Amino acid sequence: MIEGQPFEEVLSAAVSHEVGAIDAAWQGDWPRAVDQAKKVIEALPGTTEIRRYQALWHYLLGSWAVAASRSDGQPHWKDLADRHFGDARAAARGTQWLRDITTDANRLLAPLAPTVEAAEDPLDTWVIEAVTANPARTSAKQYVAQEKTVREGLVQVNHKPFEAALDALGRLMGADVLPRSGEEAQPDSVWMFGDHWWIAVEAKSEAAAEKEVPVRDIREACGHLSYAAAQTGRTVPDGSITFLATPQTDVAKVGDWVADKPVFLVSPQLMLQVADQVLGAWDAIRAQTRELQPEAARPMVAALLIRHQALPSQWLPTLTARLIGLPQ
User: Fold this and answer.
1) Which domain of life is it from (predicted)?
2) Mean pLDDT computed over 123-144
């Protein structure tokens, strides 16, 4: 840093390249992200005050070079990544956050493989295939639209964006979603995992949290799977369930008496928690497999879904903690 020059002025020289790097990374344009990150580092003076900030950009550049290698397979990306990971560790000396990082490109580029547990669960296996084949895996436009719908909708009280978010989340979970009929009895969302398993969702995002879940809402929820079967001409798979998504925590006393199908009380916060797991998996899947054909992508998709707790066998316990009526 030039003596007497304000700290903010020194950092401002790199701002345009920082914005360019983040924008390129968001779009999955890894070569441009790497190029912009290089310009950020070049724009920052090599002084003690700035060195630790440079460490962050060396680490980001190395990570984006790994992503670029996964996209096009060119060998020079690995060497570039390792060089900048090393520069990041050197620039971060004396700090805690990067001191123990041992990341190298070979480790990050090693093939991922699914665990035995996923291969043995037919539903999880079906979801892995569905996610691998989902067009959003290779289309930034499709994925960004669905991600935005989920993230913005699940924090809404208004029922329309909340219900749209449920449909988008179901698709990213690997399910087909019941088409909207426009009829009054239409469920708010139904996630159909082939003939393995269905989940119907009755959304009451606008309900007052301090009030009890009324009997009519439970009765309504209990009819959703039958409606989906009638609309599609299919049979409801054994074990299928219904979620009542509401901020309410108390249920009317006789509510347990009228729940003749498995209905689980789920808070919007729990829905958002599971959505974060699913979207985290999708962000990684998009970064690492968007250029790959399905056969090559599948093992990585499986491993990343497992890593982010985004398979049905992993997120189901979170959403089925509160059963209404029927004994578990």
Assistant:
1) Bacteria
2) 94
